[in-house]
Every structure is written in C-alpha cells, then in structure tokens.
Amino acid sequence: MRKTILEARVFVSSYPLAHERVVKDYEIDIECTDNRLYTHNGKSYKLRSGDVLIKTPGSVVSSIGNQKSYLLTLDFSEAKHSLPYSRNIGSKIQPLTNNELITGLPCVLHPRNPLVLFEIYEKLVRTPQLSSKEAHLLVDEIIYFLNADMAHKLYLQQRKTNDV
Questions:
Q1: How far is CA 32 from CA 7, 11, 72, 97, 110, in A?
Q2: What's the start-to-end Cα distance of the chain, in Å?
Q3: How many Cα neighbours within 13 Å face the side chain of 34?
Q4: Which of 7, 13, 28, 38 could form a disulfide linkage to 73, CB 3.0–4.6 angstroms apart?
Q5: How does DSSP classify residue 88?
Q6: Whole-model pTM?
Q7: Does the N-terminal peptide bond of residue 95 adopt cis geometry, omega within 30 degrees of 0?
Q8: CB neighbour list of residue 120: distance below 8 Å, 6 or more residues apart
Q9: In Å, what is the CA distance from 24 to each residue of 61, 114, 149?
Q10: What is the Cα 43 distance to its own chain's centre?
C-alpha cells in the first residue's frame, strides 16, 4: 500500500460554532475527549473518547465543542507535497483510492480497545521522521487494527443473525 504520511500530531481546539470544511486528503483521527458533536456529509455523531474518524477526500465535515485528537493525514495519490503540511492550507482534493483497507471503513468507528490505538498514535506522533520505515509501519498497524476491529464486529453481527 503506497502512501505518504502528511502529518501526525495532537490537535486541541474549541469550536463554539460549527466550522465546516471540505476534506482534501485521507484523515484517520482518534478522539481523546467526550461530547463533541461531529458532522460528516450531513450526518451527526456524538463522539466519545476513543472514537476513530475516517475522512475521505471531498467529504464535508464540521464539529462543535472541545476537541483533543490525534490527527493522521495520508496521501495515496503519490503526489508531491511541500512539507510541513496543514489540513487548512489550500490544496487540491486528492483523488479517491481503490484501497479497500481505507475505503471499506465507516466514517466513525467505536473500537473495542481504543487504548491500543492511543499507544500507536502516541508512538507515531513521537516518531522524528514521518517518512521513516517506523512511521509507515505504525500507520499500517493503525489501518490493519481498524480493519480487524471492523471485521470482528461484522462477524459478531452475522453470528447474532444466524443464531436467531
């Protein structure tokens, strides 16, 4: 899976009013606080600590409330980027990828064990070079963890349906 890690950082802010923006790249964020209202393409979610937000290019997102999140921004298009990167600085919207490990995830996930993800994100944020092999392995670990968690939930739903 070819990707460029554009940013990995902790973000803290407060939004008393909804601030709407168009997502330009792939974003996989994990929420560290409770009670933030998040809207993704018109659908609203009340976030809890540990919730993971999957944002794809072209999505329209906004939030209200206090935010503390680990941010991860990825590019699968192999475009060249000038670093440092910022989500809010104007750039073109990245083309959508056919990578099912990303496209198969819902926009909000409630992982069974978010503490594992917090540890991985913390290691990623502390990695000195985001282009390093270590950083890419941590991002792969996040993506595979989310897919395994999702597959487990689908398995439990199917098992529950079959038991009825």
A1: 18, 10, 14, 28, 12
A2: 39
A3: 0
A4: 7
A5: T
A6: 0.90
A7: no
A8: 138, 141, 142, 145
A9: 11, 26, 26
A10: 17
d(CA 98, CA 101): 9
Cβ-based burial of 98 (10 A; exposed 0-12, middle 13-18, buried ≥19): exposed
* Structure token digits, residue 30: 């994990």
For residues 132 and 128, what is the distance between their CA atoms, to the nearest angstrom? 8
Please list, in sequence order, all residues whose beta carbon lies within 8 angstroms of the beta carbon of residue 69, skipping any fewer than 6 positions away.
Answer: 10, 11, 29, 30, 31, 32, 53
Q: Which residue has the tokens 């590019």?
A: 75
Residues paired with 7 in a beta bridge:
73
Here the tokens at position 21 are 């923006």
- Phi, psi dihedrals of residue 45, rounded to the nearest 5°: -135, 140
- Binning the chain into helix, strand and coil, the percentages to the nearest 5 are 30, 30, 40
9-54, pLDDT tens digit by residue? 999 998 888 889 999 999 999 999 998 999 999 999 999 999 999 9
As a whole number of angstroms, the distance between CA 103 and CA 69 comes to 21
Q: What is the mean pLDDT of residues 63-69?
A: 93
